């Protein structure tokens, strides 16, 4: 009986296979080689491993990084960041900013075509803008565009926007997410359109096939306005488990992935790895911090916060939690970027100094139980963090141990994300948290530090309030002059380092690995994938033959 | 018989309603909303934008009203649209008509579970029977230990070991996924082998882990039966031992297995979160887990409701199966 059932299943499997295989061959493994040079050559496929699956490929509607990974290859913006984080033209050839900083005029590139052959014009930009400010569009990126007073199409290749007040992030808000093909979407409901899963873009790649849960296949767009990408095919393989992904990498089934710190430092130093892969390492645009509830009686005194900073060894955190793959954070910006101020007060590990400061603030161990106390209240608090992030949990554990040494008792609670935010952050029911911020490439951080942003659901949840910082934040976003902005943000960092509403812990490194056959990769502060269309596999090293 | 069936089916309705009610409210009792992923700690979102989003999903209405709205649709078997940013119909995510049958989530999980289930039965019944007939022998002890090792071993860990050995070291089997990159270019037989090869490790691991329950169950049921008088009678009248065990005893010992099979029906579509993640298999377990984590109410409710229905149906089938297989129960009705 069971044998028969098994046989039946096998037959079913075969039958289904016969029915389900009418597609054309897509890729075959290449066997022969003709050319022996290292010259750039067209062809081959790059297979990238990802733990997350995109959900929607319209950039302005996407919320997760996987969606942005793919949408970024399909769409371009008017401007983009150069490798040194200066702004350069993308779909806009050039732009003028009026003297008062209120009007930006973009001069668009001519002859750019959408993947379906239609010409790209200023109407597409206007359409994208109208869509993003439309209140029916469920986008998280509306804010920057609501600052626009007037947007107009001057002629086919000129687009002009006017702002109420000068707004420094204005220019870069036009990178990436806003351009949409008007001719395909003008009558569609953008949230329900087929376009969301089968988009037509104008970027270096176009979507060929999306098999949910398995992979997305992108083919190079041969008419791409910056020239045909060398790599013919980009495959985004979905593997939800990082250990599995690493095994796939070793077996040669994927060409690129982000390594975990332990994989980077301990598992990839073999000859096999050195011969077959190239590893990269650069700081990501994010930092991890320990934030205090500044309304809590323990943390109102800045000496207490400074004492805790002295009691924590950032170097040790990086060595243990990140296996050395990171750098200490001194403020809310990433080292080696223009807003980063290297000369702020730093807190070297110094438990003696920590104890001194705590004593000054009135915390002493009066009853001899090893715990500091003040007015009979022992110094005991809880660090909250979100569940599922082992790095943060480990950091919390090390901090717990270090603080115990100066007489502070710390508990750790890891909570599921929604619960954490709704029940604890929003209701201010926390003493300290360990969390991280992703930082945008523009230095404006008004929402995080300005004293007006302390209401429920706003981002200054530590209730930081400093009139000078408020003023500097305002100044920084109202001028386009980089030198003046730099001055404002440098000063903000000095104040933050002195007052420590957060203890800035570390900036982690991104550690991607790419198969050695891909050349033309030029690491820069913004990463490695910015010039993906220029990557190539020399003829003799190509592995896959891609049939269009 | 027919009257009994109708009665049973009608009895299922209030139970089903209860299941939907409880699962709906439990899901909504958890703090947080489906819009959190998009809006929480995102500096680019305003309170107005948040309200708009919540209104879009009817989250501004009281939970009772939301339940009513949902129930109204569900009666028409319309499970609504997913709350995740892609906003696809829930049913389409489970059973995507645009994909080939082999790539639809429900089919994938169903297929893997059916194969595993068949293999478990095919192996655990003989193990159970032979252990029972050699009770407390070395063989019995070895088998018991083996199936319990399978049961106790963390499946993700065992999976990684096998992947390393067969996938990386020997290079015989694919490591993860359902098919190779060059699948479309393969000839038919190659395609079949490709699909089968991808299934070998996941099926082996889940079958190995599932052996314990069924084989122990079979063993104890068999032990009970071979002590019965009619087995003694069969032996006394000089039947060969093989015939006594496999013809007379086994048939009766198999009866309780019907219940076990009935209970496994809902598991067939549930899938395993762990195995599906480790092997990168896009099945129902993965989908369910992601939906719970993102508070995707319609998706979760759809899977729970279908699971609830299947549990009830599984029970019903088990009862019917009993009636068909066991005259004693038929007589009692």
Computed over alpha carbons, the radius of gyration of chain B is 25 Å
Largest β sheet strand count, sense and barrel closure of chain A: 7 strands, mixed
Which class of the largest domain in chain B in CATH terms? Mainly Alpha
- Mean pLDDT metric of chain A: 87
The biggest beta sheet of chain B is recorded as: none
What's the CATH topology name of the largest domain in chain B? MetI-like fold
* Assembly status: heterodimer
Q: Helical percent range of chain A?
A: 25-40%
Strand coverage percent of chain B: under 5%
Helical content of chain B (DSSP H or I, runs of 4+): over 70%
Order of helices and strands of chain B: HHHHHHHHHHHHHHH
How far is the N terminus from the C terminus of chain A?
47 Å
What is the annotated CATH architecture of the largest domain in chain B? Orthogonal Bundle
Shape descriptor of chain B reads globular
How are the SSEs ordered, and which strands pair?
The complex is a heterodimer of chains A (548) and B (333).
Chain A: H1 2-19, E1 27-29, E2 45-50, H2 65-74, E3 79-81, E4 87-89, E5 92-97, E6 103-108, H3 122-133, H4 143-146, E7 148-155, E8 158-163, H5 170-173, H6 182-185, E9 205-211, E10 215-220, E11 233-238, H7 242-250, E12 256-258, H8 261-267, H9 271-276, E13 277-279, E14 282-283, E15 286-292, H10 302-311, H11 314-321, E16 326-328, H12 351-360, E17 373-374, E18 377-378, E19 380-386, H13 390-405, E20 409-415, H14 417-425, E21 432-438, H15 446-449, H16 467-477, H17 482-499, E22 502-510, E23 512-515, E24 544-546
Parallel strand pairs in A: 2-11, 19-20, 19-21
Antiparallel strand pairs in A: 1-24, 3-4, 5-6, 6-8, 7-8, 9-10, 10-11, 12-23, 13-23, 14-22, 15-21, 15-22, 16-22, 17-18
Helix pairs in contact in A: 10-12, 16-17
Chain B: H1 2-29, H2 36-39, H3 47-56, H4 63-75, H5 90-94, H6 105-133, H7 138-152, H8 155-169, H9 188-226, H10 229-236, H11 241-270, H12 273-278, H13 284-293, H14 297-325, H15 327-332
Helix pairs in contact in B: 1-14, 6-7, 6-9, 6-11, 7-9, 8-9, 9-11, 10-11, 11-14, 13-14
């Amino acid at each position: 009986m069971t044998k028969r059932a098994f046989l039946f299943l096998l037959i079913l499997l075969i039958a289904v296979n016969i029915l389900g295989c009418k597609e054309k061959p897509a890729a075959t493994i290449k066997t022969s080689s003709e050319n022996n040079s290292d010259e750039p050559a067209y062809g081959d496929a790059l297979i990238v491993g990802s733990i997350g699956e995109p959900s929607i490929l319209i950039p302005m509607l996407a919320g997760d990084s996987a969606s942005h990974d793919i949408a970024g290859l399909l769409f371009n913006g008017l401007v983009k960041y150069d490798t040194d984080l200066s702004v350069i033209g993308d779909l806009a050839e050039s732009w003028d900013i009026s003297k008062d900083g209120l009007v930006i005029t973009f001069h668009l590139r001519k002859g750019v075509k959408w993947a379906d052959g239609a010409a790209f014009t200023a109407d597409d930009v206007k359409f994208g803008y109208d869509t993003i400010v439309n209140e029916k569009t469920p986008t998280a990126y509306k804010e920057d565009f609501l600052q626009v007073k007037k947007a107009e199409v001057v002629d086919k290749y000129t687009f002009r926007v006017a702002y109420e007040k000068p707004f420094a992030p204005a220019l870069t808000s036009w990178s990436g997410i806003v351009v949409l093909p008007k001719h395909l979407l003008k009558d569609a409901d953008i949230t329900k359109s087929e376009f969301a899963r089968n988009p037509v873009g104008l970027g270096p790649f176009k979507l060929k096939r999306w098999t949910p849960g398995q992979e997305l296949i992108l083919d190079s767009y041969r008419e791409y306005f910056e020239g045909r990408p060398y790599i013919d095919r980009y495959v985004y393989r979905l593997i939800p488990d990082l250990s599995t992904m690493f095994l796939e990498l070793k077996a040669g089934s994927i060409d690129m992935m982000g390594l975990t710190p332990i994989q980077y430092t301990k598992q990839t130093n073999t000859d096999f790895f050195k011969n077959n892969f190239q590893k990269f390492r650069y700081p990501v645009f994010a930092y991890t911090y320990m934030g205090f509830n500044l309304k809590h009686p323990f943390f109102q005194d800045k000496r207490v916060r400074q004492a805790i900073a002295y009691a924590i060894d950032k170097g040790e955190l990086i060595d243990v939690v990140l296996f050395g793959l990171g750098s200490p954070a001194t403020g809310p910006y990433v080292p080696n970027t223009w807003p980063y101020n290297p000369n702020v007060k730093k807190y070297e590990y110094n438990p003696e100094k920590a104890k001194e400061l705590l004593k000054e603030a009135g915390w002493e161990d009066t009853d001899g139980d090893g715990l500091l106390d003040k007015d009979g209240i022992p110094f005991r608090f809880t660090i909250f963090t979100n569940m599922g992030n082992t790095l943060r949990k480990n950091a919390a554990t090390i901090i717990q141990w270090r603080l115990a040494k100066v007489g502070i008792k710390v508990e750790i609670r890891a909570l599921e994300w929604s619960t954490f935010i709704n029940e604890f952050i929003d209701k201010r029911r926390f003493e300290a948290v360990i969390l991280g911020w992703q930082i945008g490439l523009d230095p404006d951080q008004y929402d995080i530090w300005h004293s007006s942003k302390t209401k429920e659901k706003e981002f200054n949840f530590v209730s930081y309030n400093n009139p000078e910082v408020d003023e500097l934040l305002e100044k920084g976003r109202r001028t386009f002059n980089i030198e003046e902005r730099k001055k404002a943000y440098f000063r903000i960092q000095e104040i933050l380092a002195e007052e420590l509403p957060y203890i800035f812990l570390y900036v982690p490194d991104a550690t991607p690995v790419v198969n050695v056959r891909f050349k033309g990769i030029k690491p820069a502060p913004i990463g490695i994938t910015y010039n993906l269309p220029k990557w190539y596999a020399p003829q003799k090293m190509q592995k896959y033959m891609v049939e269009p | 018989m027919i009257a009994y069936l109708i009665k049973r089916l009608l009895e299922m309705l209030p139970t089903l309603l209860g299941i939907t009610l409880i699962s709906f409210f439990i899901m909504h009792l958890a703090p947080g909303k489906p819009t959190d992923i998009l809006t929480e700690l995102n500096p680019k979102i305003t309170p107005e934008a948040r309200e708009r989003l919540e209104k879009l999903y009817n989250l501004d209405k009281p939970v009772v009203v939301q339940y009513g709205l949902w129930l109204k649709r569900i009666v028409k078997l319309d499970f609504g649209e997913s709350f995740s940013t892609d906003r696809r119909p829930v049913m389409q995510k489970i059973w995507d008509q645009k994909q080939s049958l082999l790539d639809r989530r429900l089919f994938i999980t169903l297929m893997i579970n059916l194969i595993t289930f068949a293999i478990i039965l095919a192996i655990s019944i003989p193990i159970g029977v032979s252990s029972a007939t050699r009770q407390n022998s070395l063989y019995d002890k070895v088998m018991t230990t083996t199936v319990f090792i399978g049961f106790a071993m963390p499946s993700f860990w065992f999976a990684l070991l096998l992947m390393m050995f067969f996938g990386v070291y020997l290079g015989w089997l694919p490591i993860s996924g359902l098919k190779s990159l060059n699948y479309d270019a393969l000839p038919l037989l190659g395609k079949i082998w490709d699909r089968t090869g991808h299934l070998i490790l996941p099926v082996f691991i889940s079958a190995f882990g599932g052996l314990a329950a069924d084989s122990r169950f079979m063993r104890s049921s068999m032990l009970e039966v071979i002590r019965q008088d009619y087995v003694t009678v069969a032996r006394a009248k000089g039947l060969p031992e093989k015939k006594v065990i496999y013809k007379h005893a086994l048939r009766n010992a198999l009866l309780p297995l019907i219940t076990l099979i009935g209970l496994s029906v809902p598991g067939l579509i549930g899938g395993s979160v762990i195995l599906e993640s480790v092997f990168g298999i896009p099945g129902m377990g993965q989908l369910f887990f992601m939906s719970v984590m993102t508070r995707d109410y319609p998706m979760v409710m759809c899977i729970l409701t279908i699971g609830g229905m299947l549990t009830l149906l599984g029970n019903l089938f088990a009862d019917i199966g009993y009636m068909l297989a066991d005259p004693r129960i038929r007589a009692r009705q």
